[in-house]
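Good morning C.,

I know you're traveling, so I'll keep this short. The sequence:
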Amino acid sequence: EFLDKLKNSRKMFPETTESTQTLLIPSNIYQVFLRKIIEDLTLFTEFKEKISYVFSKRALARDQGLTLDDGNIQDNITRNQSGRIQYYWRLLIKDDQKLSFILKELVDVGISKDNSWSGIIRSISLWQTRCIVLIAAFTGMRKNEILAIPLNGLSYLKTVQGNIPVVWSTTTKLEENGAPRFTKWVTSNIVQIAFDVARTITTGILEFSGSSKAIIDNERNVPLFMSVEKGKTGIPHPSFDFTVTNLALDQLIKGYYRKELMISKYDIEELEWFLYGKETPTIQEGGIWPLALHQFRRSLAVYAAGSGKVSYPTLKSQLKHISLVMTTYYADSNSRAIDILSNDNGVKSLKSEWKEARARMESDSLYSIVTSDIPLSGIAGKKLSVQRIT
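The tokens, ready to paste straight into the viewer:
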């Protein structure tokens, strides 16, 4: 009865729709997960110079492994060349105590899977995915737009209110014919961490992959998220001279963030409140939140609109929508979302309102049962029968 009445109240809110949308990330999971992502990326930046040192040594091993080829070198390294590179890499680890110590240290702090070169390579795409998540959360950019960010894609606009960080990339969503357009997204200073990590990785890939170090004249032609698997080879991205990375979000969640994405009963209550009592079969207490990159776009729209600090035209510009109708659709039901930009009292007040409404409806339901002639059975029925008599 409580849920039915909650669903009926939906008709009072004209901004809502009946269609299924991308899930809103519950406020607690949203904040805890992003905070951990930021902490991990900050850790990476603390070891940035040491990681660059490892990349430079790998480039040295590559050069030593190719010296026998007398300049007759292809972009794709052969199996024999790869074997020689591995041989010189093992010699470097043996002779260079600094390199050996750094490799072990990177494992101890969780940056690399193990102290081998393959351990570093298998970890790189996960760190790139962390960067992609942070940028998505603080820009609302789509996946393809993030993968089209160039190496020099972060800049600052000078305004009377100070310098505003913006991310530059290409989108195909501003024209009805899908023509690509180079444009910008306003963001937070926190994405500087993501750019620092991603640039460290990509400059390293350009240094140690292929037959020689790549000389870059224009960073606009290099992707911020370059594929470590393909290196300088492979099918290039339409905006760049190189291949972009593959997103490893599922692998990242299963291996590192199950705790932060654990669903609590409060998350379920909050989501039902937001969805006007509608249950989601994929969301269960104790399970892992089914995170998808597009959820950060939806969550930014809802939380920004619900805060009252961002207008719909501004949100439309940020999300790169052609129509304002699409913007209001993305921000659907924002009036019922927890204001994560408010103080704790605001959040507690909304949760208290939810609990009081449920208790009030459950109390009314029990009263109607007690005062009716319906036969009651079971332990609960016996207790209600006593209350009916008294």
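Safe travels,
E.
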